[in-house]
Amino acid sequence: MAINAFQAALLGLFACLASLPGMGGTTVGNYTLGRPLVAGLVVGVILGDVQTGIIVGAAIQLVYIALVTPGGTVSADVRAVSYIGIPLAILAIKAYGLDPSSVEAASQAAAIGAAVGTLGTVLFYGTATMNLVWQGIGWRAMETKEWGRIKKTIPMVDFVFPWVSHIIFSFIPTFFICMAGESMVGVMKEYLPMNGIPMMTLFTVGTLLPTVGVAILCKQVITKPLDWVTFAFGFILAGALGLNLIVSAVVAVFFAVLNYQLQQAKNVRLAAAASGNVSADDEEEEDI
């Protein structure tokens, strides 16, 4: 399997759109196209293997499921993870002849994604630094207080000049790395055999990485001990009953709707009680 120039160009374009300072915007770009789960579908369509793309994207998403960027602090760049890491992971899985649904394939994908994501922080800060140049041009135009110059400069600063930053730090690296991906994987396959210590270490580390992502998520969403019961319910469905993640998600939606309706009913009851429109029978029923 190889990535041709047209496919690499499309991957580079989506890397630009998914960047955090985002040509696609924060919502559409970083928090949608930039997520590995969504990018897996996009990469799968571009490379002509949707199933493997989605499986690899889901495996890598577990590592970055709780990734946030407070104050612009970036520990890993999802743009690189999604549009460089996923294509390289797909190439590696194909080269080693692994089953995309296997633990080995998921571990390899997670390890490659983590390595690329860490290196991708250079792309993120490079883009942000170059965008400061365009911001300086905009501020100088504002300081002149000349409306004609301001009207011409600000749209260029906001919508045109940033493309230069993204072409240099998103499109070009993604294009060339993806184009060289087959040869890079070939070298890795030659010098890192499946039964060798380096590859076994890679699989071990890759297996542990999703645990880190889930642990960070737990730290953010679990506030009291009872929350662990709800959180573990999905794993019980998948492990004990053999349900896949899609079916588990549908069951979760049912319980979410049920919980929402109960909360709404409780709020209506509390509002009625506050206004004094609840009878004694109603209050007794509420206590029960």
TrEMBL record:
The keyword Cell membrane applies. One of its GO terms (cellular component) is plasma membrane. The chain crosses the membrane at residues 40-68, 80-98, 110-134, 155-177, 197-218, 230-258. Pfam families: EII-Sor. PROSITE patterns: PTS_EIIC_TYPE_4. One of its GO terms (biological process) is phosphoenolpyruvate-dependent sugar phosphotransferase system. It is found in: Cell membrane. One of its GO terms (molecular function) is transferase activity. Keywords: Cell membrane, Membrane, Phosphotransferase system, Sugar transport, Transferase, Transmembrane, Transmembrane helix, Transport. It comes from the Bacteria. It is a multi-pass membrane protein. This is Phosphotransferase system PTS sorbose-specific IIC subunit. It comes from Lancefieldella parvula (strain ATCC 33793 / DSM 20469 / CCUG 32760 / JCM 10300 / KCTC 3663 / VPI 0546 / 1246).
